[in-house]
Protein backbone atom coordinates (compact mmCIF):
# COMPACT_ATOMS: atom_id res chain seq x y z
CA UNK A 1 0.00 0.00 0.00
CA UNK A 2 1.10 3.57 -0.65
CA UNK A 3 2.27 5.60 2.33
CA UNK A 4 3.78 9.04 2.79
CA UNK A 5 7.40 9.76 3.61
CA UNK A 6 6.30 11.20 6.96
CA UNK A 7 4.48 7.98 7.94
CA UNK A 8 7.41 5.82 6.92
CA UNK A 9 10.18 7.91 8.50
CA UNK A 10 8.25 8.35 11.75
CA UNK A 11 8.16 4.55 11.99
CA UNK A 12 11.86 4.35 11.08
CA UNK A 13 12.74 6.85 13.81
CA UNK A 14 10.66 4.98 16.38
CA UNK A 15 12.54 1.79 15.58
CA UNK A 16 15.92 3.37 14.76
CA UNK A 17 16.31 2.13 11.21
CA UNK A 18 17.09 3.84 7.91
CA UNK A 19 15.35 3.49 4.56
CA UNK A 20 17.23 3.45 1.26
CA UNK A 21 15.52 5.59 -1.37
CA UNK A 22 16.26 4.00 -4.73
CA UNK A 23 15.85 5.89 -8.02
CA UNK A 24 13.97 4.27 -10.85
CA UNK A 25 13.50 4.99 -14.54
CA UNK A 26 11.90 1.79 -15.75
CA UNK A 27 9.93 -1.34 -14.91
CA UNK A 28 12.96 -3.54 -14.29
CA UNK A 29 14.30 -1.26 -11.57
CA UNK A 30 10.88 -1.09 -9.94
CA UNK A 31 10.53 -4.87 -9.92
CA UNK A 32 14.08 -5.31 -8.60
CA UNK A 33 13.41 -3.05 -5.61
CA UNK A 34 10.06 -4.63 -4.77
CA UNK A 35 11.41 -8.20 -5.09
CA UNK A 36 14.22 -7.28 -2.71
CA UNK A 37 11.77 -5.72 -0.26
CA UNK A 38 9.46 -8.72 -0.41
CA UNK A 39 12.39 -11.03 0.23
CA UNK A 40 13.25 -9.36 3.54
CA UNK A 41 10.01 -7.67 4.57
CA UNK A 42 11.19 -4.07 4.10
CA UNK A 43 9.19 -0.89 3.49
CA UNK A 44 10.18 0.95 0.30
CA UNK A 45 10.93 4.44 -0.97
CA UNK A 46 11.00 4.63 -4.75
CA UNK A 47 12.02 7.99 -6.14
CA UNK A 48 11.94 9.49 -9.60
CA UNK A 49 14.05 12.42 -10.74
CA UNK A 50 12.89 15.01 -13.24
CA UNK A 51 15.04 13.13 -15.73
CA UNK A 52 13.23 9.87 -14.90
CA UNK A 53 9.87 11.54 -15.41
CA UNK A 54 10.79 12.80 -18.85
CA UNK A 55 12.48 9.50 -19.78
CA UNK A 56 9.58 7.25 -18.82
CA UNK A 57 6.64 9.67 -19.15
CA UNK A 58 4.56 10.74 -16.13
CA UNK A 59 1.60 8.54 -17.03
CA UNK A 60 3.79 5.48 -17.52
CA UNK A 61 5.62 6.10 -14.26
CA UNK A 62 2.52 6.72 -12.22
CA UNK A 63 0.70 3.63 -13.54
CA UNK A 64 3.87 1.62 -12.92
CA UNK A 65 3.91 2.76 -9.29
CA UNK A 66 0.24 1.72 -9.00
CA UNK A 67 1.10 -1.64 -10.54
CA UNK A 68 3.99 -2.20 -8.15
CA UNK A 69 1.79 -1.44 -5.17
CA UNK A 70 -0.88 -3.82 -6.52
CA UNK A 71 1.63 -6.61 -7.20
CA UNK A 72 3.19 -6.23 -3.73
CA UNK A 73 0.19 -5.30 -1.56
CA UNK A 74 1.97 -6.05 1.72
CA UNK A 75 4.95 -3.73 1.11
CA UNK A 76 4.50 -0.13 2.30
CA UNK A 77 5.49 2.05 -0.66
CA UNK A 78 6.42 5.73 -0.60
CA UNK A 79 6.63 7.38 -4.02
CA UNK A 80 8.91 10.38 -3.93
CA UNK A 81 9.92 13.18 -6.32
CA UNK A 82 13.71 13.41 -6.18
CA UNK A 83 15.22 16.92 -6.50
CA UNK A 84 12.12 18.90 -7.38
CA UNK A 85 13.34 22.24 -8.74
CA UNK A 86 10.22 24.37 -8.42
CA UNK A 87 6.58 24.40 -7.30
CA UNK A 88 5.27 23.08 -10.63
CA UNK A 89 7.48 19.97 -10.56
CA UNK A 90 6.32 19.16 -7.05
CA UNK A 91 2.66 19.87 -7.78
CA UNK A 92 2.55 17.73 -10.93
CA UNK A 93 4.29 14.89 -9.09
CA UNK A 94 1.57 14.92 -6.43
CA UNK A 95 -1.09 15.04 -9.14
CA UNK A 96 0.44 11.87 -10.60
CA UNK A 97 0.17 10.02 -7.32
CA UNK A 98 3.51 10.74 -5.65
CA UNK A 99 3.06 10.71 -1.87
CA UNK A 100 6.14 12.83 -1.20
CA UNK A 101 8.20 15.52 -2.90
CA UNK A 102 11.64 16.97 -2.50
CA UNK A 103 11.81 20.71 -3.02
CA UNK A 104 15.52 21.26 -3.54
CA UNK A 105 15.81 24.99 -2.98
CA UNK A 106 19.52 24.78 -2.21
CA UNK A 107 19.83 25.37 -5.94
CA UNK A 108 17.92 27.75 -8.20
CA UNK A 109 15.30 26.36 -10.59
CA UNK A 110 18.04 25.54 -13.13
CA UNK A 111 19.20 22.82 -10.73
CA UNK A 112 22.78 24.11 -10.91
CA UNK A 113 23.26 27.51 -9.38
CA UNK A 114 23.48 27.73 -5.59
CA UNK A 115 20.52 29.72 -4.27
CA UNK A 116 20.32 32.15 -1.37
CA UNK A 117 19.08 31.02 2.01
CA UNK A 118 16.05 33.30 1.75
CA UNK A 119 15.09 31.84 -1.63
CA UNK A 120 15.42 28.32 -0.23
CA UNK A 121 13.25 29.08 2.80
CA UNK A 122 10.56 30.83 0.74
CA UNK A 123 10.15 28.22 -1.99
CA UNK A 124 10.41 25.25 0.38
CA UNK A 125 7.85 26.74 2.77
CA UNK A 126 5.49 27.37 -0.16
CA UNK A 127 5.79 23.75 -1.35
CA UNK A 128 5.32 22.50 2.22
CA UNK A 129 2.09 24.41 2.60
CA UNK A 130 0.79 23.16 -0.74
CA UNK A 131 1.84 19.52 -0.22
CA UNK A 132 0.64 19.28 3.35
CA UNK A 133 -2.76 20.65 2.33
CA UNK A 134 -3.24 17.54 0.17
CA UNK A 135 -1.57 15.04 2.51
CA UNK A 136 1.81 14.70 0.81
CA UNK A 137 5.19 14.93 2.56
CA UNK A 138 8.09 17.27 1.83
CA UNK A 139 11.86 16.92 1.90
CA UNK A 140 13.96 20.10 1.83
CA UNK A 141 17.70 20.52 1.38
CA UNK A 142 20.05 22.82 3.19
CA UNK A 143 23.65 22.98 2.03
CA UNK A 144 25.00 22.25 -1.43
CA UNK A 145 26.28 18.80 -2.39
CA UNK A 146 29.85 18.81 -3.59
CA UNK A 147 33.31 17.52 -2.97
CA UNK A 148 35.31 18.72 0.02
CA UNK A 149 38.35 17.26 -1.73
CA UNK A 150 38.26 19.58 -4.73
CA UNK A 151 36.25 22.39 -3.21
CA UNK A 152 34.01 22.29 -6.26
CA UNK A 153 30.37 21.47 -6.69
CA UNK A 154 29.24 19.02 -9.27
CA UNK A 155 28.55 20.30 -12.73
CA UNK A 156 29.01 17.66 -15.43
CA UNK A 157 26.00 15.47 -14.71
CA UNK A 158 23.53 18.31 -14.37
CA UNK A 159 23.22 17.88 -10.63
CA UNK A 160 24.62 19.95 -7.87
CA UNK A 161 26.25 23.29 -8.09
CA UNK A 162 28.36 24.91 -10.75
CA UNK A 163 31.75 26.40 -10.04
CA UNK A 164 33.72 26.81 -6.87
CA UNK A 165 31.93 26.56 -3.56
CA UNK A 166 33.17 27.57 -0.17
CA UNK A 167 33.72 24.98 2.52
CA UNK A 168 30.75 26.52 4.38
CA UNK A 169 28.33 25.95 1.51
CA UNK A 170 29.40 22.30 1.30
CA UNK A 171 28.58 21.57 4.94
CA UNK A 172 25.15 22.21 6.45
CA UNK A 173 25.26 24.60 9.40
CA UNK A 174 23.44 23.08 12.41
CA UNK A 175 22.02 26.40 13.69
CA UNK A 176 20.75 27.34 10.25
CA UNK A 177 19.21 23.86 10.00
CA UNK A 178 17.15 24.56 13.13
CA UNK A 179 15.89 27.84 11.66
CA UNK A 180 15.21 26.20 8.26
CA UNK A 181 13.12 23.34 9.64
CA UNK A 182 11.12 25.70 11.85
CA UNK A 183 10.37 28.09 8.99
CA UNK A 184 9.67 25.55 6.25
CA UNK A 185 7.90 22.80 8.21
CA UNK A 186 9.61 20.11 6.11
CA UNK A 187 9.07 16.46 7.06
CA UNK A 188 12.66 15.54 6.26
CA UNK A 189 15.86 17.50 5.80
CA UNK A 190 18.59 16.66 3.30
CA UNK A 191 21.97 17.83 4.51
CA UNK A 192 25.39 18.31 2.89
CA UNK A 193 28.31 16.43 4.47
CA UNK A 194 30.80 16.02 1.64
CA UNK A 195 29.01 13.48 -0.53
CA UNK A 196 28.22 14.18 -4.16
CA UNK A 197 26.09 12.55 -6.84
CA UNK A 198 27.45 9.97 -9.24
CA UNK A 199 30.29 7.46 -9.11
CA UNK A 200 33.19 9.88 -8.62
CA UNK A 201 32.78 11.02 -5.02
CA UNK A 202 36.20 10.49 -3.47
CA UNK A 203 39.68 9.79 -4.85
CA UNK A 204 40.53 7.71 -1.77
CA UNK A 205 38.68 5.81 0.93
CA UNK A 206 37.01 8.73 2.74
CA UNK A 207 38.04 9.81 6.22
CA UNK A 208 36.47 12.51 8.41
CA UNK A 209 38.15 15.31 6.43
CA UNK A 210 36.27 14.58 3.22
CA UNK A 211 33.19 12.74 4.54
CA UNK A 212 31.99 14.91 7.42
CA UNK A 213 29.76 12.55 9.39
CA UNK A 214 30.37 14.73 12.47
CA UNK A 215 28.17 17.38 10.84
CA UNK A 216 25.28 14.92 10.92
CA UNK A 217 25.87 14.25 14.60
CA UNK A 218 25.88 18.00 15.32
CA UNK A 219 22.64 18.55 13.39
CA UNK A 220 20.95 15.58 15.07
CA UNK A 221 21.86 16.98 18.48
CA UNK A 222 20.07 20.23 17.68
CA UNK A 223 17.19 18.63 15.74
CA UNK A 224 16.62 15.24 17.42
CA UNK A 225 13.09 14.97 15.98
CA UNK A 226 13.90 15.83 12.38
CA UNK A 227 14.35 13.03 9.87
CA UNK A 228 17.70 13.54 8.12
CA UNK A 229 18.40 12.58 4.51
CA UNK A 230 21.77 11.68 2.99
CA UNK A 231 22.09 12.26 -0.76
CA UNK A 232 24.91 10.91 -2.87
CA UNK A 233 25.01 7.79 -0.72
CA UNK A 234 26.07 5.13 -3.19
CA UNK A 235 28.94 3.02 -1.93
CA UNK A 236 30.35 2.44 -5.45
CA UNK A 237 31.40 -1.14 -4.57
CA UNK A 238 34.87 -2.16 -5.75
CA UNK A 239 33.51 -5.46 -7.06
CA UNK A 240 31.11 -3.62 -9.38
CA UNK A 241 33.90 -1.37 -10.66
CA UNK A 242 35.97 -4.52 -11.25
CA UNK A 243 33.13 -6.36 -12.99
CA UNK A 244 32.45 -3.43 -15.32
CA UNK A 245 36.15 -3.04 -16.09
CA UNK A 246 36.63 -6.78 -16.58
CA UNK A 247 34.10 -6.61 -19.42
CA UNK A 248 35.38 -3.72 -21.46
CA UNK A 249 34.47 -0.88 -19.09
CA UNK A 250 36.84 1.99 -18.48
CA UNK A 251 35.80 3.38 -15.13
CA UNK A 252 38.68 5.13 -13.36
CA UNK A 253 39.24 3.97 -9.77
CA UNK A 254 36.88 5.75 -7.39
CA UNK A 255 35.48 5.56 -3.86
CA UNK A 256 31.94 5.98 -2.57
CA UNK A 257 30.32 6.28 0.84
CA UNK A 258 31.15 3.17 2.91
CA UNK A 259 28.04 1.32 4.12
CA UNK A 260 29.39 1.43 7.69
CA UNK A 261 29.47 5.26 7.57
CA UNK A 262 25.82 5.30 6.50
CA UNK A 263 25.00 2.94 9.36
CA UNK A 264 26.75 5.39 11.67
CA UNK A 265 24.57 8.17 10.21
CA UNK A 266 21.46 6.10 10.89
CA UNK A 267 22.48 6.01 14.56
CA UNK A 268 22.41 9.82 14.41
CA UNK A 269 19.07 10.60 12.83
CA UNK A 270 19.59 9.69 9.17
CA UNK A 271 16.35 8.03 8.02
CA UNK A 272 16.43 8.30 4.21
CA UNK A 273 19.48 7.29 2.20
CA UNK A 274 19.50 8.15 -1.51
CA UNK A 275 21.01 5.54 -3.82
CA UNK A 276 21.02 5.58 -7.61
CA UNK A 277 24.58 5.03 -8.86
CA UNK A 278 25.02 1.62 -7.15
CA UNK A 279 21.86 0.33 -8.85
CA UNK A 280 23.00 1.65 -12.23
CA UNK A 281 26.38 -0.05 -11.78
CA UNK A 282 24.80 -3.34 -10.70
CA UNK A 283 22.74 -3.39 -13.89
CA UNK A 284 25.50 -2.10 -16.16
CA UNK A 285 27.89 -4.78 -14.90
CA UNK A 286 25.50 -7.47 -16.09
CA UNK A 287 24.82 -5.76 -19.43
CA UNK A 288 28.56 -5.71 -20.08
CA UNK A 289 29.05 -9.28 -18.90
CA UNK A 290 26.31 -10.66 -21.14
CA UNK A 291 27.52 -8.58 -24.06
CA UNK A 292 31.09 -9.84 -23.82
CA UNK A 293 30.46 -13.46 -22.75
CA UNK A 294 27.55 -14.21 -25.06
CA UNK A 295 28.29 -12.20 -28.15
CA UNK A 296 25.52 -13.78 -30.21
CA UNK A 297 22.83 -12.71 -27.72
CA UNK A 298 20.30 -10.11 -28.84
CA UNK A 299 17.19 -10.75 -26.73
CA UNK A 300 16.89 -7.73 -24.41
CA UNK A 301 15.47 -9.95 -21.68
CA UNK A 302 18.71 -11.90 -21.56
CA UNK A 303 20.42 -8.65 -20.62
CA UNK A 304 17.69 -7.25 -18.41
CA UNK A 305 16.95 -10.33 -16.29
CA UNK A 306 20.48 -10.73 -14.88
CA UNK A 307 20.63 -6.95 -14.48
CA UNK A 308 17.38 -7.00 -12.53
CA UNK A 309 18.64 -9.85 -10.34
CA UNK A 310 21.89 -8.01 -9.60
CA UNK A 311 20.01 -4.84 -8.66
CA UNK A 312 17.65 -6.89 -6.48
CA UNK A 313 20.58 -8.38 -4.58
CA UNK A 314 22.15 -4.95 -4.09
CA UNK A 315 18.88 -3.48 -2.79
CA UNK A 316 18.43 -6.43 -0.46
CA UNK A 317 21.93 -5.90 0.97
CA UNK A 318 21.11 -2.22 1.72
CA UNK A 319 17.77 -3.16 3.34
CA UNK A 320 19.64 -5.59 5.59
CA UNK A 321 22.50 -3.19 6.42
CA UNK A 322 20.24 -0.20 7.20
CA UNK A 323 17.89 -2.21 9.43
CA UNK A 324 14.97 -1.70 7.00
CA UNK A 325 14.49 -5.46 6.71
CA UNK A 326 11.75 -6.85 8.91
CA UNK A 327 9.92 -3.52 9.20
CA UNK A 328 7.31 -3.77 6.44
O1 LIG B 1 19.93 13.12 -8.22
C1 LIG B 1 20.50 12.24 -8.83
C2 LIG B 1 19.88 10.97 -9.22
O2 LIG B 1 20.93 10.06 -9.39
C3 LIG B 1 19.02 11.10 -10.47
O3 LIG B 1 19.79 11.21 -11.62
O4 LIG B 1 18.74 13.08 -12.94
O5 LIG B 1 20.20 11.37 -14.04
O6 LIG B 1 17.90 10.78 -13.23
P1 LIG B 1 19.13 11.64 -13.03
P1 LIG C 1 24.21 8.49 -5.79
O1 LIG C 1 24.66 9.09 -7.09
O2 LIG C 1 25.33 8.41 -4.80
O3 LIG C 1 23.56 7.18 -5.98
O4 LIG C 1 23.14 9.50 -5.14
C1 LIG C 1 21.79 9.50 -5.57
C2 LIG C 1 21.01 10.66 -5.03
O5 LIG C 1 21.41 11.38 -4.12
C3 LIG C 1 19.69 10.92 -5.66
O6 LIG C 1 19.08 12.05 -5.13
NA1 LIG D 1 15.09 13.23 -2.77
ZN1 LIG E 1 20.32 13.66 -4.58
UniProtKB/TrEMBL annotation:
Gene Ontology molecular function, alphabetical: fructose-bisphosphate aldolase activity
EC numbers listed for it are 4.1.2.13
Domain of life of the organism encoding this protein:
Bacteria
Q: Per its UniProt record, what PROSITE patterns does this chain match?
A: ALDOLASE_CLASS_II_1 (PS00602), ALDOLASE_CLASS_II_2 (PS00806)
Swiss-Prot/TrEMBL cofactor(s): Zn(2+)
What catalytic activity does the UniProt entry give for this protein? beta-D-fructose 1,6-bisphosphate = D-glyceraldehyde 3-phosphate + dihydroxyacetone phosphate
Keyword Metal-binding: yes or no? yes
Per UniProt, the cofactor note for this protein states: One is catalytic and the other provides a structural contribution.
Supply the name of the protein.
Fructose-1,6-bisphosphate aldolase
Q: Which organism is it from?
A: Aquibium pacificus
Query: What broad taxonomic lineage does this protein's source fall under?
Result: Bacteria, Pseudomonadati, Pseudomonadota, Alphaproteobacteria, Hyphomicrobiales
Amino acid sequence: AKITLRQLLDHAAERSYGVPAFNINNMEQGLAIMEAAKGCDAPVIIQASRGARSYANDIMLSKMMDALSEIYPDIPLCIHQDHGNDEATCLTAIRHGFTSVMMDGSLKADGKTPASYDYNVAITAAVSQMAHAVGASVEGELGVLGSLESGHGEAEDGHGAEGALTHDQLLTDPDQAVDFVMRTRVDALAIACGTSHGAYKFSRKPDGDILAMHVIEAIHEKLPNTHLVMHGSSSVPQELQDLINAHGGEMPQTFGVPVEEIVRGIRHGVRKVNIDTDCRMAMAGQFRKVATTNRAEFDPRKFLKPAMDAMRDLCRARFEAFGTAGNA
